[in-house]
Design brief:
single chain; alpha+beta; FAD/NAD(P)-binding domain; seven-stranded mixed beta sheet; four-stranded antiparallel beta sheet; 24 strands; about 25% helix; about 25% strand; binds flavin-adenine dinucleotide
């Protein structure tokens, strides 16, 4: 039987395409509109097959189709990426977000890390909310849903814990409602460069390799995939890699000695269980593979012990995170590094773009976040955000928490939008204008 090529198949099932409708596109113009299926995408975007030359695998040179042209491109739809996209869009520019998986929230949702540390700090002896703006708006929307959140609200003495499915839903809804251009299942693999200036990225997808051109790119990948590809300097990290899970049917009350039953969630009887995991290089695909497999073994072994404990026989494994728990892999070498000693000495930063809540090693102090932690030393038109910004070995355990990632995201998005509007670069952005924009967007800067 003759096998159908993609074009024949589309014809056979009656699907039309832009090309068939006479809307054939040329060279550098975007090739995708709405959900229309475009002929030849896969052929063009995959290029010719690789070949073997003297035992080496060679990928032929090829032209990559341009899938989008945008003002601000956010790579990664985790906490920071989503906040960045919303902030940039609200500032009035065109925003595209590309995420490698099928949902938003990153480690907060797909990673099943559910407690949002650290939104508050003690001010004059009173627990005071530090995280306002887009981060708090997201939390309030999650809390407004049934079983959305626990411990959110003015009287709570603890940080909020959210439900991962409600969170995924709220994040996607906010992005869609406000008009962010969304690409899911797109894995960014490289940067498009003109000297030291980033011009966009390449991503792999079921439609092959595609290009997105952008005026400013925000790296919210958590691992600095984009700034590394763009040639920005970074610091490598080996950190613990965990695999988080949830348990169902957990009886009320304290856990018996030696049993780990995890933290509360908004759903009665459901707990989320953190995992420290082994130290490893989370940019190494074999390490990631081993951590997934070993992590799952460990979870089932833990569950066996729980189910063997009288009174806990009916506890079950509800789910295991679909995103491995990578804490730190690369951080940017920025124009400023957030350092513990500076925070403890209450250093003031003229480019402060957020004030975060306190954390164990901050001795009750709130934490200012300087803009320079997101700005690469050399590469232009690029910002980092979220857990890969510039911080020392202690402070990266602060900047990687969910609440600081909200602040970093909003700041990066606002700065990127301003750079586009001021026709400047993120490095040259007017800090007073940036701070005014952030305040207008509800952020607290002290
Ligand atoms: C085991 C564990 C426990 C933790 N416990 C807590 C806790 O109790 N409380 C707390 O506040 N924080 C905790 N954290 C930290 C916190 O969850 C994360 O650091 C934070 O959510 C990071 O947000 P982010 O947006 O910077 O990155 P991520 O959540 O990692 O988001 C990055 C996004 O980018 C996408 N992406 C990555 N690479 C690409 C690419 N090349 N192309 C396209 N998309 C890409 C990812 O799929 C992801 O959606 C924990 C972390 C771990 C691992």
């Amino acid at each position: 039987m003759r096998s159908l090529n993609r074009r024949d198949f589309m014809k056979a099932v009656g699907l039309t395409s832009l090309a068939a409708a006479g809307l054939r596109r040329v060279g550098a113009q975007p090739i995708h509109e709405g959900s229309a299926i475009v002929d030849r995408i896969t052929e063009a975007s995959r290029g010719d097959a690789a070949f073997i030359d003297d035992g080496r695998v060679i990928q032929p040179q090829r032209e990559v189709p341009v899938f989008r042209d945008t003002d601000v491109l956010v790579v990664g739809g985790g906490t920071a990426g989503v906040a960045a996209a919303l902030a940039a869009l609200r500032a009035g520019v065109k925003v595209t977000i590309v995420e490698r998986y099928g949902c938003f929230g990153g480690l907060w949702t797909a990673g099943l890390v559910l407690i949002v540390l650290c939104t508050h700090a003690p001010i004059d002896g009173k627990r005071t909310k530090m995280v306002h703006g887009i981060g708090d708006e997201i939390l309030a929307r999650i809390d407004s849903k049934k079983f959305g959140a626990v411990n959110y609200g003015p009287d709570s003495t603890r940080d909020a814990t959210t439900d991962p499915e409600v969170t995924k839903y709220v994040l996607a809804k906010m992005l869609r409602e406000e008009g962010v251009d969304i690409i899911l299942n797109g894995w960014v693999t490289n940067a498009i460069m003109d000297g030291d200036t980033i011009k966009g990225v390449l991503f792999e997808s079921k439609s092959g390799c595609l290009a997105i051109r952008a005026k400013v790119v925000i790296d919210g990948s958590g691992d600095g995939d984009v700034f590394d590809a763009a040639g920005a300097e970074s610091v490598p990290h080996v950190h613990r890699i965990g695999l988080v899970h949830r348990l169902g049917n957990v009886p009320e009350g304290p856990a018996p000695e030696g049993l780990t039953l995890g933290g509360v969630t908004p759903i009665p009887g459901v707990r989320w269980v953190n995992m420290q995991g082994p130290q490893g290089d989370s940019l190494d695909v074999q390490t990631l593979t081993d951590c997934e497999l070993d992590g799952r073994e460990a979870i089932w072994n833990r569950l066996k012990r729980i189910q063997e404990t009288p009174g806990y026989e009916n506890v079950f494994l509800l789910d295991v995170a679909s995103q491995l728990g990578v804490r730190a892999s690369r951080t940017l070498v920025g124009t400023t590094e957030l350092r513990l000693e500076d925070v403890l000495e209450k250093k003031e930063y003229p480019d402060v773009v957020g004030i975060g809540g306190t954390y164990s090693f901050l001795k009750g102090l709130p934490c200012p976040i300087p803009y320079g932690t997101m700005v690469p030393q050399r590469v232009e038109n690029l910002l980092a955000t979220g857990r890969c910004v510039a911080a020392d070995n202690t402070m990266l355990n602060y900047t990687r928490l969910i609440a600081p990632c909200m602040l970093l995201g909003q700041a990066a998005g606002a700065a990127a939008a301003l750079a586009v509007q001021e026709n400047s670069t993120p490095r040259e952005v007017n800090i007073a204008n940036l701070q005014a924009l952030l305040r207008q967007q509800g952020a607290y800067l002290g």
